[in-house]
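General statements about sequence and structure are easier to judge against a single worked case. For one protein, we set the task of working out the structure tokens from the amino acid sequence alone. The sequence in question and its structure tokens are set out directly beneath this paragraph.
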Amino acid sequence: MSVDLYWDNDEQTIILCEFSKGWTWEALFGALNKVKTITQSRSDTVGAIVDMSRGLGVPNGSLFSIETRDKAKQMLQMSADGKGPIAIVGANGAIKLVSKAFALVDKNALNDVYFVDSVDEARNILYKRLAIRVGA
């Protein structure tokens, strides 16, 4: 599978979703559906790190194709429906562009979605957001 899921911490409050070269939209949505199932089945809040930094592009090539725009929109809608924070590492231009359009329509839709440059930055945001004590 080109999109893999792991628990990122021992407390199992942060899920790490890693993309590798050759990922597909189907693999992405399969992983996001698993994350959604996990977060909806728990009473506590679960955060997610979506690491796209090693994904090396989008499926079917074009960053600005209609399909890429529609899939990015679908991904962000799934994120907005979740109950926990999500940090997206290394998002491409299409995903960021669609997120800005979402924010214009509904400024609260992506309130808990963060675009970051590294997994460490994502962890720091989610630790603060979930009030997890690091090293405790």
The chain is about 40% helix and 20% strand. The chain has a mean pLDDT of 77. The longest strand covers residues 14-19.
